[in-house]
Write a structure and sequence with these properties.
Length: 370
């Protein structure tokens, strides 16, 4: 098991406990990777140090901790430049071992890597990684790296190593974008063809681990993989939902979950996956009611939906009610019109949700035919 140390740099007004809480999500991601968090460190600073992200004192303290606690990977909960990561890693190296230094985006990308199955997801991750890392040599020191290269494979004398690296990177990114664009076009055709299969589509969205796939399985009768770890689903899956004696099924899609501070390069790369929700007739925003940070997570998802330009109706589905003590015994609770309280696990509330979805979509289709 790889051993991780988490570090958060926060402004001096933030409370220590709050900072530790903010690292919980990072710890969940580490668990998803099969690693173990051995220590958490917090540093109060007005701004991260431009060269080493943390101050010199903290770096010294980390050197000791890394040796004593046999740390393999240091994860910094923020955006850290390649240059900063390199300098930290160099400071933490000792004679025996090398330590990996990641920021939040690196960690998320690693998790994505372990779950990516389709060629599309793999391309999306590669594009996000290239955008995040930038030219590897960049920012590591002019004296060493800006020498002119010249020779085979370069644009002749005058092109520096960094310039050459940047050019190769841009070419690779352009190629991936072209491939993704092709895949998106094909996907849009598939989506428009789906309109003939049945009503909808209805897209399930929500924070990662909210229970989207469990609800998807409940609605469609499929058995897609669900897991308590984060980002289990990366590729979009589509299924048909039947209700009562209705002959035409409803098309339902399950897709990648959202997360706070999802790096923009990831949102950008996964746009083609997320177009499912743009093309939907109805979006179900699945919420984990047992989560302490529920309202914060709702706000994060709402913001991403706005950013994506989702303009169709969005219904809230509060999931995991079986975990709320006393909820099952409540005789009747009045909720908003388009708010549903369900347990995807036990099936509670799923019937009503199905009924409402069907009647909304049928009414929509009837309006279109008039
Ligand atoms: N108790 C309870 N657990 C649930 C319920 N719905 C889902 N879960 C659990 O919550 C965890 C996450 O469920 P998933 O369906 O994988 O969640 P997801 O939103 O698809 O997650 P990602 O694909 O990773 O973004 C799993 O361990 C499920 O068993 C529910 O209604 N009640
Ligand atoms: Mg899922």
């Amino acid at each position: 098991m790889r051993r991780y140390l988490l570090l958060e740099v926060i402004n001096p007004h933030t409370h220590y406990d709050e900072a530790l809480g903010q690292m919980d999500e990072l710890a969940d991601l580490v668990k998803t990777l099969g690693g173990v968090v051995v220590a958490r460190e917090v540093q109060h600073r007005v701004k991260p140090h431009p060269a080493t992200y943390m101050g010199a004192g903290k770096l010294e303290a980390l050197k000791l901790a890394v040796g004593q606690k046999r740390i393999d990977t240091l994860v910094l909960n923020g955006r850290v430049s390649s240059g900063q990561k390199y300098r930290i890693a160099r400071a933490l190296w000792n004679d025996k071992r090398r330590i990996a230094v990641w920021d939040r985006v690196d960690l998320i990308l690693k998790v994505f890597d372990t779950h990516a199955v389709s060629a599309e997801a793999k391309l999306q991750i590669e594009l996000a990684r290239l955008t995040h890392e930038g030219p590897k040599l960049y920012g590591l020191g002019k004296d060493l790296l800006s020498r002119q290269a010249g020779g085979i494979g370069t644009r002749g004398i005058g092109e520096t190593n960094i310039e050459r690296e940047k050019r190769i990177l841009q070419d690779r990114k352009a190629l991936i974008r072209r491939k993704l664009k092709k895949l998106t076009r094909r996907k849009e055709q598939v989506i428009s063809r789906r309109r003939h299969i049945g009503l909808g589509p209805v897209a399930l969205v929500g924070y990662t681990s909210a229970g989207k796939t469990t609800l998807f399985n409940r609605l469609t009768g499929k058995q897609k993989k669900t897991d308590l770890h984060l980002f289990t689903t990366l590729d979009t899956v589509v299924g048909k939902m039947k209700y009562g004696d209705q002959r035409v099924p409803v098309v339902v899609s399950d897709t990648i979950g959202f997360m706070q501070d999802l790096p923009p390069q990831l949102v950008e790369a996964f746009k083609s996956t997320l177009i499912e929700s743009l093309h939907a007739e109805l979006v179900l925003h699945v919420v984990d009611v047992a989560d302490e940070r529920m309202s914060h997570k709702i706000a994060v998802v709402d913001e991403i939906l706005t950013e994506l330009g989702v303009s169709v109706p969005v219904w809230r589905v509060y999931n995991k009610v079986d975990l709320l003590e006393g909820f099952l015994h409540e005789p009747e609770i009045v909720f908003g019109k388009h708010e549903f309280w369900v347990s995807a696990k036990t099936g509670r509330g799923a019937g009503k949700l199905k009924r409402e979805i069907c009647s909304m979509l049928k009414a929509g289709r009837a309006r279109m035919q008039v």
